[in-house]
Amino acid sequence: MTTVNVRFPAPKDGHLTPQMKQTWDANGVLLLEGFKSEAECDALTERARHMASEADLTNAGIFASAQAAAERDEYFRASGDTVRCFLEEEAIDDNGSLLVDPVEAINKIGHAMHDLDPVFDAFSHSAKLAALAKDLGLKDARVLQSMFIFKPPRIGGEVLWHQDGTYLYTEPQSVIGFWFALDDASKENGCLWAIPGGHGETLRTRFVREGDGFVTWALDGTEFDIANSIALPARKGDMVVLHGRLPHASEYNRSDRSRHAYTLHVVDGACDYPENNWLQRHDDMPLRGFER
Length: 292
Ligand SMILES: O=C(O)CCC(=O)C(=O)O
Known about the structure:
Layout: E1 7-9, H1 18-27, E2 29-33, H2 38-54, H3 57-64, H4 69-77, E3 83-87, E4 106-111, H5 113-116, H6 118-124, H7 127-135, E5 141-149, E6 159-162, E7 176-181, E8 192-194, E9 205-210, E10 213-218, E11 230-232, E12 239-243, E13 248-250, E14 261-268
Bound molecules: 2-oxoglutaric acid.
């Protein structure tokens, strides 16, 4: 079993110590304990649950139900610079009817709340996050994507092993994931897993636009070394930083506790952003940095 320590008390000003930097370079993952306060976490969760309670879930059902692939693709495609809800696969029956309470039915909200909603904006922008991004090597950090992940009790879906560079590719590769635990996350309710050091390997696939749909390009067929993966249990307020080539995943939540989390994906504005990446913004909504 792999034993690697990637946990540190969160730096108050966001700046990484030499030891944190060394751990980041070696492993491609850091867990910064207590990066956010309980109050900050609760405010975000409350806001997301409010959004979920008001959401038009008829449309959200497109994502999981057997409706036309074209409709599903269009719903996803337009979420890059808007705010849309996506349902858990197990939340609806074959006819698309909800099997659980609407607020417990949502898999995630994405992908531009950090720019479009004041509560998410406040959580997502600070001098502390800007300092962290700089120390991680991002010369011109741009916050590209936000996701509120509900992982609801009993039906919270699994996230398969992947690298974030597959979805958010730049040349050279620059994406970094900032993942915040908004509930305590354990193996029981579907905490993150990662393969320390896996960021040193190649990007395996790219997910790109093709015509009106999407395809996945195979770049390297080598399997991920999941025998060397570690669980990353986290307390509410902890933050996990994930290199864009670091393989990571999470299991189903079959427990009776939710596992809310929030992620920001950040790229370097100095890098090229391909026009075939799935996430494209309209010109009137340029990417911002971490400054408020
Ligand atoms: O929260 C999860 O379960 C997975 C999140 C993830 O894979 C990501 O943010 O890239």
